[in-house]
Amino acid sequence: MPVVTRIAPSPTGDPHVGTAYIGLFNHTLAAQARARGEEGRFILRIEDTDRGRYVADSETRIFQMMQWLGLTPDESPLQGGPNGPYRQSERFDLYGDYARQLVASGHAYYAFETPEELAALREQAQGEGRVIAVPSRDLDPAAAQARVDAGEAAVIRLKVPREGQTVVNDRLRDPITFQNREIDDKVLLKADGFPTYHLANVVDDRQMEVTHVVRAEEWITSTPIHVLLYQAFGWPEPVWAHMPLLRNADKSKISKRKNPTSVEWYMDQGFLPEAMLNFLATMGWTHPEGQEIFDLAEFQRVFRLEDVTLGGPVFSLDKLKWMNGKYLREVLTEEEVAKRLHAYLASQKHDLPLDAYFRAVVRMMIPRMDVFSEFLEKTPYFWSEEYPVTEKAAKLLEEGRPFLPDLAARLKNLSAFDQATTEAALRAFAEERGLKPGKVMQPLRAAVAGTSESPGMFEMLEALGQERVVARVERAGR
């Protein structure tokens, strides 16, 4: 069978990691179908009918997130496609026709209750421990139609059967049974003609030939409404698969109060898209061979939907940083890191040349950073003479002040300034002074870097160069 998947984010704010997470699995299922020689399509649809929460630039930022991740849809508002338009706001007239079709078939009805009447009915229903009973449900259909034709405001509600059960057959779970008497007659079309999520979602999925609805488990409680809609229209249901929600460490639903949830934050911090995808793939799924580091192609090769587990994956920023560091040190080449770091810094308005000096600093820092944003934070002494001095480094400078002027003279007189030469000179200097090498090198590090933590001493000295090193040691020894 064809595999047509979709994500349908709402443009209401920052591009969310949850959208990226669900997008990854939907993208993969479609790619796997194509790899088998079958039809596979991944659709990005914008659900923008909630105009009260609409954010003007949010849609563009969603596209940019998907492009950054490399999860290119086959159909979207950008690419177009045979089943467009791909914005719900551009499909407005379609929903009313389908809602009225359900009224005509007896699966929906016009409802005329005012907000005040509904509030009273809802309060009564809550007190009696039941769902709200809407009086308009029992109106004669011809009389209700006459009132609508006369211009009276009405919504269209789904006519949920009062008896029996609705079963959701979820690919990741045992069948989930809902008692129909506990399901509200949900509004499908508002009085202003705007569809609710339930109607628009089902109609769009059907019109776009979606075969697999893979979404977050928070939508499980809405799914019986969707099943009833498919049945009312006489359409075959898609495959349902509700993925486990991303969780904070305390198992609460991931939220920006406890974790950055905007993918743009991770982009700005200099995370790699490959690492983000790798990390998201492990949320609720484990590589069958126990691999922790794998690329998108490998994920598409071995992933099976039925292997997803439902334990509530924890979105750990520390684990993501660790994984990103693994990519910097073990997956990318040194040159790839340099080029991508340089591009990242340019995007952050830092103008550094991609030259031999930059590459030398990158080489030293690859073992000492996990994300690109740490690069300049940890290397200010490579780029300026106005670098901070830590409290510990200041103490080391005090210890070294008696010999730093002589050390500066020794370094100034070296005929070469490569790693082997500086190491030999420093060890000889320490021996002459009756000091352990560390007692010389630690104050020297503090003098040239302003910190007790830096890359390897001799590699750092060679990169900085004799002139800068001598000037800094002279300054520190005054």
Quick tags:
mainly alpha; 20 helices
Radius of gyration: 31 Å
Helical proportion? 40-55%
* N→C terminal distance: 79 Å
Q: Count the strands?
A: 9
What overall form do the CA principal axes indicate? Answer: elongated
**What about the largest sheet?**
3 strands, antiparallel
Share of β-strand residues: 5-15%
> What series of H and E elements makes up the topology?
EHEHHEHHEEEEHEHEHHHHHHHHHHHHH
Q: How are the strands of the largest sheet arranged?
A: 3-4-7
Average pLDDT level: 96
- Alpha plus pi helix count: 20
Structural class: mainly alpha
Any low-confidence stretches, pLDDT <50, length ≥5?
A: none
Characterization of the model:
With 478 residues, the protein is mostly helical. Helix content is 47%, strand content 8%. The chain has 20 helices and nine strands. The strands form four sheets. A three-stranded antiparallel β-sheet has the order 3-4-7.
